[in-house]
Input
Amino acid sequence: MSRIFHLWPVVAALFVLAWAPARADEAPPVAAVVHLADDGARARLSFDLSAPVTARAREIANPDRIVLDMPAVDFRLRPQAGRAVARHPDALIKAFRFGLFGPGKSRVVIDLARPACVAHVETRRLAPGETPSRLTLFLRACAETAFAAAALDHAPPPLAAAPAPAPSAPARGLPVIVLDPGHGGVDGGAYGADGAVEKTLVYAFAEALRDKLEATGRYRVVMTRVGDQYVSLEDRVAKARAANAALFVSIHADTLRESTAVSGTTVYTCSNKASDAEAQRIAESENAADREAGETTKAADPGVADILFDLKRRETRAYAHLFSHGLVARLGEAETLNHNPERSAGFVVLKAPDFPSVLVELGYLSNAHDVANLKSPQWRDKTAEAMRKAVDGFFAKADPNGEPASHALTASAPGAKPSP
Ligand SMILES: [Zn+2]
Output
């Protein structure tokens, strides 16, 4: 008994050493190796790290997932490393994703094939000296009821129906174009041929487009994410609203399981009813971005049944169509269009009532030619140039007096009352 008692200070000291948080100015620990063992009864997922981190795991239902949250970790793993990992027929883990989740925060999201509960999370040093540390998540198969109870335990309290934030007053100066590169951080988006990952390719394109637009000196450009960062769909719209957006352009790339032949760029606007089944599928998959990142889905639309809100929304949607037509015409000149290039569906990210929004699916990561295009600086340049011309055309029409475009739009919108 007394011997154990004497060991305590040593154990405590080791514990403090092992768990001392990394200082903010230090580079985050690097994860270079991942191990997975899964026999259907138990699963063990470990990351070898250059320094220890404290991590916390919890269950999330519908679809059933486990999220493992930790301070920022630099995951130097193949982006595809966690895809389709089940080897055992009864495996608990279907797939997992990893990446930055917020400033100073990383996350691993584990998709479950069957209900599995968190048994334990541990961080331990592998050997004395400067050897790396191993973070391990232990799961065990559990009853569906046990999983549901655990998930309920972690569920955030229901949100009070927050009123839609009021748009800021139109700022003087250049019209603001908000570019929204899809996905980021733990949410990679679509994956495709040749190691293509949507979040990376659409970001490179958004940067090229930003440079083109800024070079004209006619616009201020705001990006909804900076680098490989996760931003929720709601926060993307909130950022655009805070920036007093005159135009919102969301940039994505798609993938098709059924066919590798489908290719080309498609421009989407928002509608309550999808233009076709394919548009419906794409909206559903893009709207699931927050779920992919391990977030519980929040009420997307506060359901504002206000007639003014409705008028405003109809007006901005008319302008989104105007921009969409011009964009499709310009992209047609650049010869990169899909066979059915102008569609609509209920994209969450396009639902802001106060500025026109479009979503561009640049191409299909399931198509080798599109992937080669998206990776090519020449293609990006040509396509961004076509989009820059479409933006110029749109603002030339909407903004004859040099007023901020959102202003000009309000005054002349179809269906709106004539301005006093
Ligand atoms: Zn996407």
